[in-house]
Amino acid sequence: MTGSILFEAIVFLAGAILCVSIAKRLGLSSVIGYLLAGVLIGPYVLGFIGEEGQDILHFAEFGVVMMLFLIGLEIEPKNFWNMRKTILGMGGLQVGGTMLLSYLLFIGLGFDWKVSLVISMAVALSSTAIAMQTIKEKGLMDTTFGTSSFSILLFQDIIVIFMLGFIPLLANSESATTSKNHGDQATLLESLPMGFQTLAIILSVVLIIVAGKYLIVPMLRKVAKTDVRELLIAAALLIVFGISFLMEYVGISPALGAFLGGVVLSNSEFKHELESTLEPFKNLLLGLFFMAVGASINFIVIAKNPLTIGGVLITIIVLKALVLYITGAIFKLKLDQKLLLTFSLAQIGEFAFVLLSFAFGLNILSQDEMDMLLVITALSMSLTPIIGIVNERFILPKIGTKESVKRPMDHIAKSQKIILVGFGHFGSTIGRFLRSHGVEATILDHDSNRVDFLRKMGFEVYYGDATRLDLLESAGIAEAKIIICATNKIGVSKAISKIVKEKYPHVELMIRTKNRYDAYELLNLGHENIYRESLDTSLVLAKDVLSKMGFRKYTLNRQVQNFKKYDEESLRRLASEPKREEDYIFKARQELAQQEKFLNEDFKRGVVDYDHHWDSEQIRKILNKK
Amino acid sequence: MKKILILFSHPKFEKSRVNLSLINHIKYKENVTFHDLYEQYPDFHIDVNAEKELLNKHDVIIWHHPFYWYSCPPLMKQWIDMVLEFNWAYGPKGNALQNKICLNTITTGGTKEVYCSEGYNSFTIKQFLRPFEQTAILCGMEYFPPFAVMGTHNLSDEVLEDYTINYGKFIDLLQDGLDINDLENKSFLNDIPQLKL
């Protein structure tokens, strides 16, 4: 249509908003909505997006890039090591099995062995984007199905690096360096002789790991110190774009570079902050990616050869499903989990686009072969959510395997999670006390120096602004039991309390306040667990003064308890009283007036004389009257 | 000269006329350690090791307390529960308190007359103090009858003065090695001939 970027943006956004809301309203996954929007605005239905679909796909790949970066962030090397058996076992089995079967299939269909090998590699990879999106949307990350899928996808994401390194070795030597198929400018990789290409890939991987540790983390610390939030967003984007650029320059998939970058940064204190900063971008760009996939379904190619394409598509899905089912069976998954795994990873993934066009660029694949496989890939991705729905609505209910009731201990501990916001003098005391009782809290703090220090001390601390829903979510508020606001900024506590009350009402809030005025405000917002930092310490001090004046300690101890009880009662009484003077100038005077009122009340009520227990004087008086 | 530990337990010592008088008379005596539990542990958080060390250093342990509801105030019960540990105070290896002397000094509101089978308290002081007696026996200590100031509700200042002086004399006697055989099966230490006024 028109070449205006603005118009295209409007088409994409409007299509997304319309289709995704309809899909969500119908209870379908958002992925279906995006794919449908892509088909709708694509060249074959409304024709808003024409031949430039490829370019959009290229741009939209940033969604996949960010997703892989975020997946990389979630893999702390420690977790990776713990999961090594499932990752290597399930992933290896799945990739190996699928490759073997599809290689035989394509050889049987009469393809050249090199072509068959490349295609079988592409087919073996599932779509991390679709699978992870669905798993997260349904909150299944902690199930065996979730971790199995994650392990398999992880293995695939890693094995792609080797595949990309291997494919050049398959290239026909006479056309490898002067690729006639490749339209873009030549990359560094292509200008290198054969053996060096593999070396260049390994080198760039090492470069990312080293840069991550000695360049990116120190840079983030510097940026965090400025305390300007958008700078951190800029830094996060810079990391992703920078790594992608480097990888593209070398000639390997930017998504893989980003994945590696994520792994490198997963051990840093910025993990959650980066995660929550990039999340909104990632989701939108992933949506764009899905739309581009939808738009790139070439209906002309399908129309030319509907039976072959349909046949190959179904055969591949069945074949992948079979391998997944067997993998699940070998690893003793329960039937429902096995089926979920089977149906959610049976598609060909976005890396197929990368591998196929890479092989196409090296003249291994012909134009026809690539067109057909790209359509099959797009179709298989589009089918996944539909297959998932069939499984969920019609197959799973008949099986009726319930989630096992007995959960291992760490699950219980995890679901009893405590989040501690602010690790200053107040919060650190709480954190240390909890920890000495074997209770670990997830700590959020906004001071990168402190975060750094605490991490060195072995605390689970994350840097970030805790008033943001996404950060709270990545800190695990959904599974939390208690959130402690130990910050001295009432604004922060109020913002958190608002989020928690609206989105996670099951989480109990415990809030520190500086004084009774802040306490009034929170009480009037309906919060009960309010801890005035001034109350206990001042009473301890007052108690010690009186003890030095010769009062007995036990009596003072009781009086402190009495005073606290009485003061908390009066706080709650007075919170509902209308505040007459809101004017700032009067505030100090008003405060004094109120203090005077309290003192008079205390005097009349006789706080100190309140305690008549063990007092024989009264008994003596009554007895002597007789 | 024997060393005496007064384990004093009174939640409202500052309001106790009788105990103030008794304690003030003896607390500065040589080789007497006055140990005020409610002042030391107002939050009931007893330092067991410090208490054991204190016990090790003394030959005579006096549980000095008002007689509340036929027993001692809660912190003293807490002290017994926590300090007299298995294999330290009792049990196969528990001989830390072996052969020390132990007794109660008590103040009661009711008179001696109401603490007997005909009185409204039905039982004697000695009967009420059985748990303490057996505790001391289990720990291998020699349990003496109590020093008791009774009828404190109607005690005149003159009589209180006598009790106070007697308590001082009694501490002296303990320090000089008062023997179980000197007690002639008296129910109260107040009644031994040396303390008769």
UniProtKB/TrEMBL annotation, chain A:
Membrane topology listed for this record: Multi-pass membrane protein
One cellular component term from this protein's GO annotations in UniProt: plasma membrane
Transmembrane segments annotated in the record for this chain: 6-24, 31-50, 56-75, 87-109, 115-132, 152-171, 191-216, 228-246, 282-303, 309-327, 339-360, 372-390
Any one Gene Ontology BP term: proton transmembrane transport
PROSITE patterns: RCK_N (PS51201)
Subcellular location: Endomembrane system
RCK N-terminal domain residues: 415-539
GO molecular function: antiporter activity; potassium ion transmembrane transporter activity
Family to which the UniProt record says this protein belongs: Belongs to the monovalent cation:proton antiporter 2 (CPA2) transporter (TC 2.A.37) family.
Protein name: Potassium transporter
Species this protein is from: Tenacibaculum todarodis
Lineage: Bacteria, Pseudomonadati, Bacteroidota, Flavobacteriia, Flavobacteriales
From TrEMBL, chain B:
Tree of life domain: Bacteria
Keywords: Oxidoreductase
InterPro entries: Flavodoxin_fold, Flavoprotein-like_sf, KefG/KefF
Cleaved signal peptide residues: none
Ranges of residues in domain Flavodoxin-like fold: 2-164
GO MF entries: electron transfer activity; FMN binding; NAD(P)H dehydrogenase (quinone) activity
Presence of keyword Oxidoreductase: yes
Keyword Oxidoreductase assigned: yes
Pfam families hit by this protein: Flavodoxin_2 (PF02525)
PANTHER family linked to this entry: GLUTATHIONE-REGULATED POTASSIUM-EFFLUX SYSTEM ANCILLARY PROTEIN KEFG
Protein name: NAD(P)H oxidoreductase
Lineage of the species this protein comes from: Bacteria, Pseudomonadati, Bacteroidota, Flavobacteriia, Flavobacteriales
